Amino acid sequence: MAATFTSADSQVLMPRTIADGMVKDARTLSTAARLSPAEPQKFGNVDIITFANFPKAEFVGEGDNMASTGGGFGFVTAKPHKAHVTMRFSKEVMWADEDHQLQVLKELGDAGSIALSRGLDLGLFHRINPLSGTEITSWDNYVGASTKRVEYDGSVDADTVFREAVGLLVNGQPTVQVNGAAFDPRFSWALSELQTLSGGVETGMQRYPSLGFATDVRWQLRR
């Protein structure tokens, strides 16, 4: 069995910036982090106070009495969850030259950042434990628990379903302004396949040409 690579063994080998780089890459690669770029909170449940009924302003004339405004408070509870990525390799790495040692650590750092970002998305969206693939039934605060949901089955255009999903937020109480969206690759492909219509007939022109092949592909013209 391979020995665990500890900090005591790796003081000479381990660059101090690897951990920071892993966190930075995890934020960049994670869909959840890109949609909601927030700093980590202190460990432990945190109650966030919200307005259940926003106060209202009032126009008054000079010298008129000013009325108070009513309102109500609500709260949501943020529940932090701990994730880790553990990787082991044998002590033979310590005997390799420094270039090889640094390359091994770089590969581990890159793999760790991908694992953390994927774990963040699987946990936040689906409450799935990435290592086992099982559902964490004790979690009740995840995106999939929302009752505001629509389902795309291919019977209507993908953008129709997307507009319906946005409408659930914009027309809800309280209303929510949508400033970003994340698409499953298959749903993004369905959007990219849509064509503009003329008199109900497809024109052969893409409705959303900037989607490319439903990824981050961007075309560049070269002379």
What does this structure look like?
This protein folds into two domains: 1-40 and 82-143, no CATH class; 146-211, no CATH class. Helices cover 30% and strands 11% of the residues. The chain has helices spanning 18-29, 31-35, 98-126, 158-170, 185-193; strands at 46-53, 72-78, 195-198, 201-206. The strands form two sheets. Strands 1-2 form a two-stranded antiparallel ribbon. A two-stranded antiparallel sheet has the order 3-4.
In short:
With 223 residues, this protein is an alpha+beta fold. The protein is built from five helices and four strands; from the N terminus they run H-H-E-E-H-H-H-E-E. Helix 1 packs parallel to helix 3.
Q: SS-based structural class?
A: alpha+beta
Instruction: Give start-end ranges of low-pLDDT stretches.
Output: 8-17, 217-223
- State the helicity in percent bands: 25-40%
Order of helices and strands: HHEEHHHEE
Task: State the major sheet.
Answer: 2 strands, antiparallel
Number of continuous helical runs: 5
SS strand fraction: 5-15%
What is the approximate shape? extended
* Count of all domains: 2
- Strand order, main sheet: write it out: 1-2
Computed Rg: 25 Å
Distance between the termini: 57 Å
Q: Quick check: average pLDDT? A: 76
Tell how many strands the DSSP assignment holds.
4
Key phrases:
disordered C terminus, 223 residues, 11% strand, 2 domains, single chain, alpha+beta, 4 strands, two-stranded antiparallel sheet
Summarize the topology.
Layout: H1 18-29, H2 31-35, E1 46-53, E2 72-78, H3 98-126, H4 158-170, H5 185-193, E3 195-198, E4 201-206
Antiparallel strand pairs: 1-2, 3-4
